Amino acid sequence: MEKLTLNAVGKLIPERINNEAVIPFKGVGKYKPTGRKYAPKISSNTDFPLDGNKQVSDLKTALTKAGLKDGMTISSHHHFRNGDLIMNQVFDIAKEMGIKDLRWFPSASFPCHAHLIPYLEDGTINRIEGSMNGALGKFTSEGKMKGTAILRSHGGRYTAIQDGEVKIDIAIIVAGTADNFGNANGVNGASASGLLGFALGDSQYADKVIVLTDNMVEFPCIPWQIQGNYVDYTVKVDKVGEPEKIISGTTKITKSPDRLLLAEMTAKFCDQADIIKDGFSFQTGAGGTSLAVSKYFGDIMRERGIKARFARGGSNEYLVNMLQEGLIEYILDGQTFDLEGVRSMRENSNHVWTSPFTSYNYHGKGNFAGKVDVVILGATEVDVNFNANVVTHSDGLLLHGIGGWQNCLFSKTVILPIPLFRNRNPVILDEVTTIVGPGELIDVIITERGIAINPLRKDLIEKLKDSDLPIKTIQELKEEAEKICGVPEKPEFTDNIIAAIKWVDGTIIDVVRQLKK
Amino acid sequence: MEKLTLNAVGKLIPERINNEAVIPFKGVGKYKPTGRKYAPKISSNTDFPLDGNKQVSDLKTALTKAGLKDGMTISSHHHFRNGDLIMNQVFDIAKEMGIKDLRWFPSASFPCHAHLIPYLEDGTINRIEGSMNGALGKFTSEGKMKGTAILRSHGGRYTAIQDGEVKIDIAIIVAGTADNFGNANGVNGASASGLLGFALGDSQYADKVIVLTDNMVEFPCIPWQIQGNYVDYTVKVDKVGEPEKIISGTTKITKSPDRLLLAEMTAKFCDQADIIKDGFSFQTGAGGTSLAVSKYFGDIMRERGIKARFARGGSNEYLVNMLQEGLIEYILDGQTFDLEGVRSMRENSNHVWTSPFTSYNYHGKGNFAGKVDVVILGATEVDVNFNANVVTHSDGLLLHGIGGWQNCLFSKTVILPIPLFRNRNPVILDEVTTIVGPGELIDVIITERGIAINPLRKDLIEKLKDSDLPIKTIQELKEEAEKICGVPEKPEFTDNIIAAIKWVDGTIIDVVRQLKK
To answer: Which 390-449 residues of chain B touch chain A by CB within 8 A?
Structure first.
């Protein structure tokens, strides 16, 4: 059996994954890269049409011209989320061409991609390196994928591309609007899905770049969220995606009294911690609880006549309304979670599209995360050391991606409002099934039965010392949960590593093992 | 004496310049780069402030922290044109610190930089690689610069950075507005000068990047034409530049009957060549004649009820008016030539900022130049093979830069409206003093006494065969000029090469020699 090394959060990490050497997590800020960014080949205009028209007849032609062959890495982005119509076609074509052993490198995959399971079984696709939501995660958890999955945060994915850790052979970029030169955006057209930021690194560093659209306009396609100067081929198709399926989370503020309580406690905590003041910044999210937190933030701001300098999206109707009302000066958006978000991004120049490069790249000269005053995140599990899990459920199944979650941990204050238990499973444990975020970066756990502040945040403990909120230790919260639900049973795993969880710096913070039947 | 090689336009090129091997021009589209783009060092957020605040107290501190030392390459951009207030200070500081042998790599230099002549004399600055307008050009022509000047087009400069031909140690970026993280733009603030596109490559590839502004706003500075994720230090100064000095060319349509005639002939030629039609695109420029051409284009469009899909800027009041009137759908702008251009770029989302990467990079996957239907350019001299000169005068003095001129030659039709003679010097010669653009890319020469179409453009000759315009051969035009002015005397040069002229692909198309006293 392979040699395993203990990493800085006490997890056993193999020396190699997918036959490549990996680096175990060394602690936050402890691993520094050496060397230089990945250097793509220098192109020459002489190899491209003089008039700039790069349009080819169809996707198969583009893939063929791009030199699709065994063992290549195909990247894609997930702005259409569960409404993507292209990636299944890409691998249908690969299968038809008899191509084997591909690495799929999406920024995320969704239930709609369950179509690809036969290709994972027959070896057309060796493995997925990217967030897996739903069926593909279950398939992987059952040990059925040939290669080992690698999960990266949105920022970690950009970093891996920039650093040359992942070399993309062919990038597939799917856009609401494009011109035949390859300039493209996600804000215009019948299939507008918002922005194309997750594909930015792919466009910059991939060997070949293919842009598909169902709305091919005359040059120039404005705005050019993707620049045609990086693009090799353009393709017009009938329909690129179903934008109505980009919705994430619930689209309405929760009506559950428990969740409303969580949201109210979160807003109250932020208020008592002096976070909500004129010019502050926040990131909440798109779940029902998060929407409620935004609502309570709005109530407080309105009452005091203050406004936020910016909010980080995932945007949706609620955040857009706050922007329009003037409660927020800017939305810095990484992903639109509903069509109101798309419309606002198209029409309002204060609704700004970002990318994992600007927002989250850890191997840059800083990123935007550290500029955010407070970020409200979720978790499937938290442990008594504040380590948190977002990828596996308490039954051990790998069902979620990391998204921007890890990257956001570098914000000034990180709060996780979570229920104390779900389906009688305590959420606060001695050890989380998978460590995705190290506890030192997680400041506050808010449950319906009490709030735990990370002992490292002495400033917050001091500020809240006379609070009427139920401040407790995390140990107390855990015991309270166990009093109600009992001590939870742990899922049982085999030794087989089915997925690796990367930290933002490219090191391995944890692995996920195959579930025992 | 050094060995010289004949290049593809018959010019003798040395093997080495500034002690680096150079490649002689091989013909349009004949030289293809191998290898990979320049790969900057991978940074780590751990080396930058957690809260993203990179502001230091002053320029000298920033330069010191950036490690300024002998032999470094300092880059700058010329959006303030003759109103730049920073670069003289940079070299004042270098002089004060006793630094020697710097390479200054500006996108262009202007008369205001004559201040630097003592530093060129005392060896603080070894040489300038960038367009020199005025006194610095004269200084160079007199053989007084220690190193050899290298002149590149705007696109060639980006390409040189991207390809690693020029490695920038410290990039100086001067912005109308910025935040302390380093996001910056040129559209807002009292010193708004338009855009920052010429500094894009510098920001992406330089080892250290310093952003200066006199309008430091709270994060986020929107739009971020320069992304703070590339920036090392930010500095607030009292005043970055004098935007009222960005004016280029005349600001009014010419009243000279000769020039108006040239402009009218140009518009008429374009019309008869079927170039002016609904959805066409054009680039004129900012001189008095060019403004008149735009005006005549506007008259034709208005009369026919058609509009242009886009115009390429240098923008100014005239182009902005056409945009506002709806005669042009988009301005794709590389440089604002007056404050109306700045205002329009700030307020009108159809007035789009570009960069030499999007517009002009020849070592990319195409660029925008080939998308432009017709471009109207100037020249100091043209020869009977349609080769043209824009950098030296007929007296042999190097007084101008290349700008985007070479890059624009890849547009679909290139027209040079020029007077047949200037100050009794014929403009059409047997041989130009310096070849900056190869004749095969120059389609039409329009003079007040006749129009010459390049024999390569059989399509244009055919279209104009029944024209009432005075179509002649270029030989006829030359003879006509000589009949009036006599055969011109040539300037006399020593053997000393004082400047090299790069073609867009990085090869040397010509050199400029020191003038004999």
So the answer is: 410, 412
- Assigned token pair, A504: 């933002």
Element (H, E) at A477: helix A474-485
Of B43, B223, B370, the CB nearest to A364: B43
**Closest chain A residue to the Cα of B53, Cα to Cα:** A371
Q: Which A residues 240-259 touch B at CB under 8 Å?
A: none
Residue B250 has pLDDT above 70, yes or no: no
> Do A308 and A233 belong together in one domain?
no
Across the interface, whether the CB atoms of B220 and A357 are under 8 A apart is answered no
Is there a single domain that holds both residue B219 and residue B280?
A: no
- Per residue in A17-27, pLDDT (tens digit) is 999 999 999 99
Say if A139 falls within a structural domain: yes
Q: Does B456 touch chain A (CB under 8 A)?
A: no
- Tell me which chain A residues have a C-beta less than 8 angstroms from the C-beta of B43: 363-365
CB contact under 8 A, B370 and A51: yes
The residue out of B210, B245, B280 marking a domain boundary is B245
pLDDT at residue B249 is higher than 70: no
Domain boundary residue among A201, A222, A245?
A: A245
Instruction: Using the Cα atoms of residue B158, residue B164, residue B166 and residue B171 in order, give the sign of their dihedral.
Output: positive
B229 in contact with chain A, both atoms CB, cutoff 8 A: yes
Q: Residue B189 contacts by C-beta under 8 Å, 6 or more apart in sequence?
A: B175, B176, B177, B213, B214, B215
| Among candidates A36, A231, A352 on the partner chain, residue whose Cβ is nearest the Cβ of B365 | A231
Which two tokens mark A66? 């791009």
Determine the residue of chain A that is closest to B346 in CA distance: A349
Which chain B positions have a beta carbon within 8 Å of A350's beta carbon?
222
Whole-complex ipTM: 0.96
B36 touches chain A (CB under 8 A): yes
* Mean pLDDT to the nearest integer, A178-183: 98
Return the DSSP state at A143: T
Report the distance separating Cα A293 and Cα A266, nearest Å: 7
Q: Residue B248: its pLDDT value, please?
A: 67
Residue A170 is which amino acid? I
**Backbone torsions φ then ψ of A240, nearest 5 degrees:** -90, -25
Structural domain span for residue B324: 257-491
> Could you say which DSSP state residue B86 is in?
S
pLDDT, tens digit, 9 for 90 and up, residues A356-393: 999 999 999 999 999 999 999 999 999 999 999 999 99
The amino acid at residue B149 is A
If asked whether residues B421 and B347 sit together in one domain, one would say: yes
> Do the chains contact at B50 and A410, CB–CB below 8 Å?
yes
Report the CATH number at residue A297: 3.40.1080.10
**Crossing angle of the two packed helices A257-272 and A288-304, in degrees rounded to 10:** 40
3-state secondary structure of A442: coil
Whether chain B has a CB inside 8 Å of the CB on A279: the answer is yes
Considering only the beta carbons, identify the residue of A34, A42, A357 that sits closest to B36: A42
User: B209 with B297, same domain?
Assistant: no
Torsion of CA B453, B459, B461, B465, to 10 degrees: -150
What residues of A are in contact with residue B219 (Cβ under 8 Å)? 309-310, 371
Domain count, chain B: 2
Q: What is the 3-state secondary structure (H, E, C) of A83-135?
A: HECCHHHHHHHHHHCCCCCEEEEECEECHHHHHHHHHHHHCCEEEECCEECCH
pLDDT digit string, tens, across residues A467-506: 999 999 999 999 999 999 998 889 999 999 999 999 999 9
Q: Quick one: A215 and A330 in the same domain?
A: no
Mean pLDDT (whole number) for B372-396 = 96
Where residue A251 falls among pLDDT bands split at 50, 70, 90?
Answer: low
User: Which of A371, A408, A456 should one mutate to test binding to chain B, selecting the residue with the greatest count of B CBs within 10 A?
Assistant: A371
Both tokens assigned to B430 = 């047997």
